Amino acid sequence: MTIRVLLADDQALLRSAFRVLVDSEPDMEVVGEASDGAEAVRLAKERAADVVLMDIRMPGTDGLAATRLISADPSLTDVRVVILTTFEVDDYVIQALRAGASGFLGKGSEPEELLSAIRVAAGGEALLSPAATKGLIARFLAQGDDDGRDPARSDRLGALTGREREVLVQVAGGHSNDEIAERLQVSPLTVKTHVNRAMAKLGARDRAQLVVIAYESGLVRPRTD
């Protein structure tokens, strides 16, 4: 299956570079380019994009607002957004994860990392670049203490089984299904089933959202080191 990619960046030169890179892959194709967030949302619908590479800072409707619009649109449920940013520790990136982005990547990343990011996001996995550790995200989510917590999500954790909670903790730690299976001594297929059920019960679009929920609900505590 060919992954349909939409490029959203206000710099034409960067879009051109990304297009050449993406179109060089046999399993990907660029289906459109947008110079602002509003155009990105429109083209995501018109071109049936699978993954949107979204610049966080654009004129007019920025990447954060566009991500929220895509995440909230029932017709775009299967669209995954990967935020591209110059500053990987930018608080806007954390807000984008909360808004529904599947992850983020620095613009200085290697071409192989970007291509891998597209495939990971298209597969419904959480994408966090090496520089963007789970501990870093946890510290951002913890800023403001109670303001960073979602009581409604905390209550909804009660719908999870004990095993689903265990798996959620492991997902928040950045572990893959295979790693979780080894840690919990179950099959990868069993882990995948628990992850899918947790996503359904918590209203999460993908694993990135599970990570956010795990921290915002208080199930996983931020590291202080």
UniProtKB/TrEMBL annotation:
Keywords: DNA-binding, Phosphoprotein, Transcription, Transcription regulation. Pfam families: GerE, Response_reg. The keyword Transmembrane helix does not apply. The modification 4-aspartylphosphate is found at D55. It comes from the Bacteria. Residues 4-122 form the Response regulatory domain. Residues 153-218 form the HTH luxR-type domain. InterPro entries: CheY-like_superfamily, NreC/VraR/RcsB-like_REC, Sig_transdc_resp-reg_C-effctor, Sig_transdc_resp-reg_receiver, Tscrpt_reg_LuxR_C, WalR-like. This is LuxR family transcriptional regulator.
